[in-house]
Queue: 2 jobs
Job 1
Amino acid sequence: MGDGAKGTVTSLDALFPAKEASRAARRVEEAISERRGELRRLRGFAADNAALVSLVQKLPDELSHDIMVPFGGAAFFPGRLIHTNEFMVLLGEGYYAERTAKQTAEILRRRGKDLEAQIESLKATMLDLEAEAKFFNSTAAEAAEGLVEIREDYVEENQEKVSEPGSPSSKHEDSSDKPNDKDEEYARIMARLDELEKEESEAESELEKEESVAESASRDDEEEDDAGDVDAAPSDEHEDEDEVEDAVGSDEDEDVSEDDTWGNRETKSVLQKTRVQEMLDLTAAKPPADYKQVHEKAAIVETKVQSAAKAVSFNLDNEQSHGQQKPHPLPPESRYSAQRTEGTLGSTSSQIQNISSAGRKAFTGSVIEHDHCLPPIQSPNITSLEEPSSSNPSKRVSRFKMQKGNR
Amino acid sequence: MASSSPALRELQRDLENQANALSKIQKDIAKNHQVRKQYTIQLGENELVLKELELLNESANVYKLIGPVLVKQDLAEAKANVKKRIEYISAELKRLDGTLQDLEDKQNSKKESILKLQQRIQTVQAGKAKS
C-alpha cells in the first residue's frame, strides 16, 4: 500500500454471513406471519361485533319473534323469542349486566373501538417487522453477491484521506482490487492539495473582501444569466442557475438558499466529478494547488474546469471511495478547486481560460471533495457561493491570473 | 498431555453443566413471559369490566357467572370485587417483573462464565496442540 490510506478490505460475508442473515430474515418473517394471524383474528372479532350490533338493533322491532330453537345437538323446535328489549350482556370476567337494546349497542360499539385500536397497533408492529425482514433479505443478497466492505483509516492531516467506516453500501469492488495504484495517485494529489491549501489561505483573505463587494452584484446577475452551459451543469452558482436547473434538474439557486445549495452541490458534484477527473488526469502534477485557487476564483474558468476537473474528480472519487460522506463542504470547494486546477495547470489552464472567456459562465465546480483538507475554506466558500463567482468574469480572470502569478 | 486431558475433560464437563443451567434459566424466563402475558390480558379485561360497571346506573342488575349458575349481584359489590381483582393482578405482575429481572441477571452472569470457560478450554487446547 502506498502512503495513502491504509485500509482493510473485508468481505461483507464475514460481517453479515449470508446464511445468518437469511436465517434472521426467516425468523422475522415468522414473527410477521404470527402477527398476521393475530390480525385476522381481530378482524374477525370486529366483523362479528358489527353483525351483533345490527342484530341487537333489529330485535326490538317486534314484540316477539318466531324462531326455531336449537334443542340439544341436532334438533330444533319452533318457539318464540320474547322480551325483545332485554339483553344480558357479558362485560367480562364472568360479569353480566342486564341492559336494553340501545345500551347493549353502545357497549358493543365501545368494544368495537377498542378492537380497532388493537388492530392499528398490530399493523404498526407488523410494518416494523417487515422493514426488518427487508433489511435482512437485502443484506443476505448483498453478502451472497460478494460485496466487500472497505475500511480505510482517516488520517487527519493535510492530505485527504478516505475515511469512511465501512458501510455495507460501499460497493467498490474495483477499488479493492487496485488499492496500490489509487494510493499512489492519491498521495500525489494529497501533496498537491497541501500546496494549494497554503495558497488558498493566502488568497482567502483577498477573496473575502472581494466577495462581500460582489455579493450584491452577483445576486442580481444570477437570475439573469442564462449561459447555456449544459456541460457545466451545476457550475456557476449565479450564472448557471437556470442552466443547472435544466441540465441537472436540481435547483441551483445558490444565492437563493444556502441550504439548498448544499444539496444542489451534491448533485453538481456528482455530475462534475467526471469532469474533474479529466482535469486531474491532465493536471496530475498540480491538482492541489489548482483546487485552492479554484476556491477563490471559480468564475469563468469553472466551465472549462468542468471538463478538466472531470478527470480530477473522477480520480479523486476513486481514491476517496468513502470521501463522499460530506459532499456539502466539498461541492463548493471542489467547484472552486476544479477551476483552480485548470487555471494553475499550464496548458489546461490556458485552455480553460479560453473556454471560459468564450462566454460560458458555467460553474464547472467539478466536485472535488476536499472536505478534509480544506475545512477553513468552507465558510468563505459559502459566501463565495452566495455571490456567484463574481458577476464579473473579468474580475475572476484577473484574480486568477494574479494567483497564477503568485505561484 | 495426559495431565491436561482430564483437566480438559473436566473443563468440558463444567461447560456442559453451565450450558444446562443456562438453558434452564432461559426456560424459566420464557415461562415468566408467558404468565406475564396472561396476567396482562386479564388485567386489561378487568379494567374494561370496571369501565362498563361505572357506566351502569344504580338500578341495573348485575349477574355473575359462577359455574353454570348466573347469580345476581349488587352493583357496588361487583365493582368492589373487580377493583380488588385488578389490584391483585397488578401486584402479581410486579412480582413477576422482579423475578424476571433476577432471572435475566442470572442468565447474563451464566453466559459470561460460560464464555470464560470456553476461553480457558481454548487456551488449554492450544497449549496441548503446541506440546
Note: Residues 160-177, 216-274, 282-359, 373-396 of chain A have pLDDT under 50 and may be disordered.
Job 2
Amino acid sequence: MKHVIIIGGGIAGMQCACTLADRGIAATIIEKEADLGGKIRSWHVLFPTFTSADEVLSAARRRLAQAENVTIRTGCEATKLTPKRVTLSTGEELECDAVVIATGFTLFDARLKEEYGYGIYDNVVTSADLEHMFNKGEVRLSSGQAPRRIALLHCVGSRDEKVCQRHCSKVCCVTGVKQAIELKKMFPTADVFNFYMDIRMFGPGYEEMYREAQLAHNVHFVRGRISEVSPTIDNRLQIKAEDTLTGRPLKMGIDMLVLLVGMRSNDWNTSLEAECGLKCQPSGFMQPKDSFLGNVESNVEGIFYAGTVTAPKNIGESINEGTAAALAAAEWISK
Amino acid sequence: MINFGFSINKPRTIDIDRNNLRKSNEIMHEMPELQTCIGCGTCTATCTAGNLTEFNFRKVHTLVRRGEYQGAYVEMNKCMLCGKCRLLCPRGINTRGVVMLIKRKLGDF
Ligand SMILES: Cc1cc2nc3c(=O)[nH]c(=O)nc-3n(C[C@H](O)[C@H](O)[C@H](O)COP(=O)(O)OP(=O)(O)OC[C@H]3O[C@@H](n4cnc5c(N)ncnc54)[C@H](O)[C@@H]3O)c2cc1C
Ligand code: SF4
Ligand code: SF4
Ligand code: SF4
C-alpha cells in the first residue's frame, strides 16, 4: 500500500488524511502537540456564521476516526524531510511515497509592538487571548469588572516594516469585526471601537457581517492606526490615533484593548529552505510551485503543501487545500 | 462697477487636470518610499506639533503628492524634526527626510 506522511495535524492536515484514505492510500499524521486540530482548538465561534469552532473540529475528528489506514502520531515533531523519508524529533525515520507539509502558521508575538503595552499594562490582550476568554465564558478586566469601553486594533504585526512583516494576514479584519459583535452581545451597553487602516472583508458573508456590526450592534469604526497606549491614573488605558477621515488627532480612555495579531510564518520554514531544498517567499511562508496552477505543489517533486503554510488563509480555504494536496499527491504516486 | 455684494469662492476641488504635478513627481522620484504611505495617520497621532497646532504631516504630504503646494513649506516648518513619527510609521518611511525634501523643493510656495 502506498503511504503519504502529512506533517501537521491542523484542519488542513486532517482533511488531507481523510481524502487520502478515501483513495485507498495510507496516511500518517505527524503532530507536535498532544492533540490534533491546530489553532482552531483555541477559537470560540467562527466568522462569518458564528458556528462553534468545536462543532467544526468535532466533525473533522469524527471523519478521521472513521477513515481506514490513518496513523496519528501526536507529541512528535518532524525535523527533516525528503519526498521519501521524514525524520522525527525522536530520531526515528519514517519511509513514505510522498510528503504533505501542513504545518500552518505562527501567531505574531504582540510583545514586539512595545508601544501597545502587551505584557506591560493590564487589560491589553490579543485576539487569541480574547478567544480563550470567550471559551471560558467570561471576559473581565483585571479588576474583575466588566469593560465599558473596548478598542480593537487591526494589523498588529502585519503590514508593518518595523517588525519585518509586510504581508496582510487576511483573516484578522474579519476576526476583529466578529469579536466586536461578540463583545457587544456580551456587553450591550459597552462602546466598542475598531481602529483600522483598511477593512478587508474578502469572503462570502464577510462584508454583510461588517454591515451588521455597524447597523445592528453600533460598533464604531475609526480609520486610523493607534500610535501608542499609556496607563491613566484611574487604571484605565489611554490611546492615541489620528481620525484620518476628519484629519484630526484623537485620544480616548478605554478599559480594554484587543490587539488583532497577525499570522506569521513558522520559524521551521527557514530550515525547510536551507536543508530540504524547498523555497520560501519573502514573507517567510513557503513558496508554492505556481500561484495559479500549482498552489499545493512545492518546487520539489513529491512534496506538497496544504493550508496556511503557504499564506494566511481562512478555514474553508485551508480545508480545500487539504483535499487538493491529497489528490495531487495521489496522482503523483500513481505515476 | 456696481458691487452687488457677491463674490465667487475659490473652488475647493483638487483639480488634478490643472495642478502641475512636476514638483510632486520630482519629490516622489527622490523619495519613492513616500508613495508607499497607507495613510494610517500614526505619524499625525504621535506628532507633538500636530497635537497642539493644525499641523498634520500626513495631510500636508498627501496634498503635496496631489500637486497642492500652497502653504506646504510654511506647514512643514512647524515640524520640530523630533522623529517620533519615524519610529512608528508602519511603512518605515523616513518621515523627517520627507519634511526636509518638501521644504527644499517647495521653498517658494
Ligand atoms: C485569531 C484568529 C481567529 C481566526 N478565526 C477564524 C474564523 O473564525 N474562521 C476562519 O475561517 N478562520 C479563522 N482563522 C484562521 C484559521 O485559524 C486558519 O485558517 C487555520 O487554523 C489554518 O489551519 P492549518 O491546518 O493550515 O494550520 P494550523 O492550525 O496552524 O495547524 C498546523 C499544525 O501543524 C503542527 N505543526 C507545525 N509544525 C510542525 C512540525 N514541525 N511537526 C509536527 N507538527 C507541526 C502544529 O502544531 C499545528 O497543529 C483565525 C485565525 C486567527 C489568527
Ligand atoms: S486582514 Fe485586516 S487587520 Fe489583518 S493585516 Fe490585513 S488589513 Fe490588517
Ligand atoms: S518629526 Fe515632525 S512630523 Fe514627525 S512627529 Fe516630530 S514634529 Fe511631528
Ligand atoms: S505613519 Fe507612515 S504610512 Fe502612516 S500616514 Fe504617516 S507616513 Fe503614511
Note: The longest helix of chain A spans residues 315-334.
